[in-house]
């Protein structure tokens, strides 16, 4: 049985159980956020519907009915079961009604539900049996962190583990969750807080929901979006399956994202099924909001401002994802894809009732209580809850190292007599910072300092755009309509740059050795490029089939080959680049007369100097 891969094994940046709602816009899959539960209306007529309603206002089909508290919405439980004491604090209920806060509408489950396929039955030959033996004197003996199953993220199978009832490696099966409470946050809808001190590494809660196929996940997220839901509850399980906690789920569905989280998701193999758990990555004191990094994948459309409040906040949900980074990278002067008018923006803070002075809590034993905002609930990173009107500036990666601090280049003169090509050793690269842009036909375009400077000046950060948009839309009682995402036209360089013309460069150099070295480097570079292209053809089917989930379909050996080929390509580019710089700097150039006469005669560079 193969252990479940941790996320760090994957070549691609996104962990496969990252949260994302997907939406097709112009043929692409795009992310969106969903729902929320808050409605603030003058009369107590919010009623939970099966799907969380849009923030834009009451659902006419439900208006006029009375608010129901979350605990009474629990219509079914499975697995470990919600404790039967689903008591609603009457004061809290009154508060909810007064404030007309719609409570989360979902069916509480404590183990995954399978609608499109049967729950897998573990075959006997697949059962991994560890070597642990219970020793009364050694508390770590029954399947602690030395247990082979534990080390491979696999739970022990009851009846097969020699430690029997003492086995500590059945946390999902035994629902050994931490105590948590549901709270109303400022700006981010509901959230979950620790209702006890949680230790680093501790299993906090399972992310439960309906296990659905990837195709179904796509369809559902489109449907949710059409229904106006804004909070995303679909988490990726692997290339083929997702967990949808929109309608049915555990309290884990309320854990918000943070760019500096105190938890993380981990996949575990439990009796033959893969399950997702939320685990503490640090000690979490009682009352602290739980969070993990969604690794939200952004494909276009609404940019959701991240309100986690962390110092290193990336500004938007999904800002680290490839789609987002490509979209906010560089664009041409006439490219108005991301002008203020074109960004559909949604800011959850704008929909929050401002008058709420208390947080409302639903504990995992089913109790709702009022929670004073001024007391212990706070994000781990900053005191108090997220600040709706402030956010950390987005970090836009610099193109190169700091251009003004480059040391002068130190190039060793090429030994005139030497016919051998020696591997180049070059002092720290300096002079004009150059940027290589790989264009589709495999050739390379280079740009120099001016590109760097202009891009620095002209690329507005997404935050800047967002701020402007926010100012323009001060009254956000309704969701800003989602315009179709602009078609992605791929990453574009700021300017049309001159292509590197190797024959021309060689033509200008008087030394044949210099030409040879450059030509040799170019050949190596071309080889590296064709190797990486060939390799990409092997990976492409998986990439195209499952887009971001493909990391699960790419074998580790292929991923390793890809990394190696990428490194070779980078090195070859660098060597070519460096060879050109070195030779231009250290080799005599042809005289003007010589050049002119050669051009007149139409002589080719290879005849030069040979
Ligand atoms: C899995 S739900 C989390 C629970 C959600 N807050 C609720 O009220 O049901 C994910 C959604 O919560 C909101 N959210 C989570 N973390 C956020 C953050 N750091 N900033 C802004 N919105 C956030 C987004 O709308 C996101 O799609």
UniProtKB/TrEMBL annotation:
<keyword id="KW-0158">Chromosome</keyword>
<dbReference type="InterPro" id="IPR006560">
    <property type="entry name" value="AWS_dom"/>
</dbReference>
<dbReference type="Pfam" id="PF17907">
    <property type="entry name" value="AWS"/>
</dbReference>
<feature type="domain" description="SET">
    <location>
        <begin position="178"/>
        <end position="295"/>
    </location>
</feature>
<dbReference type="Pfam" id="PF00856">
    <property type="entry name" value="SET"/>
</dbReference>
<keyword id="KW-0949">S-adenosyl-L-methionine</keyword>
<keyword id="KW-0539">Nucleus</keyword>
<keyword id="KW-0489">Methyltransferase</keyword>
<dbReference type="InterPro" id="IPR001214">
    <property type="entry name" value="SET_dom"/>
</dbReference>
<feature type="domain" description="AWS">
    <location>
        <begin position="125"/>
        <end position="176"/>
    </location>
</feature>
<feature type="region of interest" description="Disordered">
    <location>
        <begin position="448"/>
        <end position="493"/>
    </location>
</feature>
<dbReference type="GO" id="GO:0032259">
    <property type="term" value="P:methylation"/>
</dbReference>
<dbReference type="InterPro" id="IPR050777">
    <property type="entry name" value="SET2_Histone-Lys_MeTrsfase"/>
</dbReference>
<feature type="compositionally biased region" description="Polar residues">
    <location>
        <begin position="448"/>
        <end position="478"/>
    </location>
</feature>
<protein>
    <recommendedName>
        <fullName>Histone-lysine N-methyltransferase ASHH1</fullName>
    </recommendedName>
</protein>
<keyword id="KW-0808">Transferase</keyword>
<dbReference type="GO" id="GO:0005694">
    <property type="term" value="C:chromosome"/>
</dbReference>
<dbReference type="InterPro" id="IPR046341">
    <property type="entry name" value="SET_dom_sf"/>
</dbReference>
<feature type="domain" description="Post-SET">
    <location>
        <begin position="302"/>
        <end position="318"/>
    </location>
</feature>
<dbReference type="GO" id="GO:0005634">
    <property type="term" value="C:nucleus"/>
</dbReference>
<dbReference type="GO" id="GO:0042054">
    <property type="term" value="F:histone methyltransferase activity"/>
</dbReference>
<dbReference type="InterPro" id="IPR003616">
    <property type="entry name" value="Post-SET_dom"/>
</dbReference>
């Amino acid at each position: 049985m193969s252990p479940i891969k941790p996320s760090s094994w994957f070549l691609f940046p996104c962990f496969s159980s990252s949260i994302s709602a997907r939406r097709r816009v112009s043929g692409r899959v795009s992310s969106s956020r969903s729902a929320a539960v808050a409605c603030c209306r003058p009369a107590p007529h919010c009623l939970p519907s099966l799907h969380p309603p849009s923030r834009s206002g009451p659902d006419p089909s439900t208006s006029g009915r009375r608010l129901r508290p979350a605990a009474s919405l629990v219509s079914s439980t499975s697995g470990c079961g919600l404790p039967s004491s689903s008591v609603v604090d009457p004061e809290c209920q009154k508060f909810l009604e007064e404030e007309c806060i719609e409570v989360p509408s979902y069916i509480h489950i404590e183990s995954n539900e399978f609608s499109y396929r049967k729950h897998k039955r573990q075959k006997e030959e697949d059962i991994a049996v560890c070597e642990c033996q219970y020793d009364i004197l050694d508390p770590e003996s029954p399947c602690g962190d030395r247990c082979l199953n534990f080390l491979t993220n696999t739970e022990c199978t009851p009846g097969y583990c020699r430690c029997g009832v003492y086995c500590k490696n059945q946390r999902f099966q035994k629902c050994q969750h931490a105590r948590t409470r549901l709270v109303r946050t400022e700006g981010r809808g509901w959230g979950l807080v620790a209702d006890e001190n949680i230790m680093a590494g501790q299993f906090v809660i399972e992310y439960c929901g309906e296990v659905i196929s990837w195709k179904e996940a796509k369809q559902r997220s489109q449907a949710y979006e059409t229904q106006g839901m804004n909070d995303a509850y679909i988490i990726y399980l692997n290339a083929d399956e997702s967990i949808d906690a929109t309608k049915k789920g555990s309290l884990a569905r309320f854990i918000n994202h943070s760019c500096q989280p105190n938890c993380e998701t981990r996949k575990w193999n439990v009796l033959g099924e893969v399950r997702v758990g939320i685990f503490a990555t640090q000690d979490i004191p009682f009352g602290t909001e739980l969070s993990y990094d969604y690794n939200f994948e952004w494909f276009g459309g609404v940019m959701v401002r991240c309100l986690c409040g962390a110092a290193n906040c990336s500004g938007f949900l999904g800002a680290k994802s490839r789609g987002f980074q490509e979209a906010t990278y560089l664009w041409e002067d006439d490219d108005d894809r991301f002008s203020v008018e074109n960004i559909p923006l949604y800011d959850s803070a704008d929909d929050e009732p401002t008058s709420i002075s208390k947080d409302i809590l639903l504990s995992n034993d089913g109790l709702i209580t009022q929670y004073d905002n001024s007391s212990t609930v706070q994000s781990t990173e900053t005191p108090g809850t997220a600040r709706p009107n402030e956010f950390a500036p987005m970090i836009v990666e610099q193109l190169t190292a700091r251009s003004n601090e480059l040391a002068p280049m130190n190039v060793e003169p090429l030994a005139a007599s030497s016919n051998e090509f020696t591997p180049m050793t070059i002092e720290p690269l300096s002079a004009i910072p150059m940027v290589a842009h790989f264009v589709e036909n495999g050739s390379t375009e280079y740009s120099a300092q001016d590109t760097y400077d202009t891009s620095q000046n002209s690329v507005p950060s997404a935050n800047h755009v967002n701020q402007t948009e926010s100012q323009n839309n001060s009254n956000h009682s309704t969701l800003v309509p989602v315009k179709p995402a602009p078609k992605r036209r791929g990453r574009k360089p700021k300017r049309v740059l001159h292509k590197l013309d190797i024959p021309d460069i060689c033509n200008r150099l008087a030394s044949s050795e210099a030409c040879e070295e450059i030509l040799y480097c170019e050949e190596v570079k071309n080889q590296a490029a064709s190797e990486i292209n060939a390799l990409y053809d092997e990976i492409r089917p998986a990439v195209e089939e499952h887009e971001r989930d493909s990391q699960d379909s790419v074998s580790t050996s292929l991923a390793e080959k890809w990394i190696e080929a990428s490194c070779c390509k980078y090195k070859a580019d660098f060597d070519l680049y460096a060879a050109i710089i070195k030779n231009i700097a250290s080799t005599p150039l042809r005289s003007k007369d010589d050049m002119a006469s050669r051009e007149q005669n139409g002589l080719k560079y290879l005849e030069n100097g040979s």
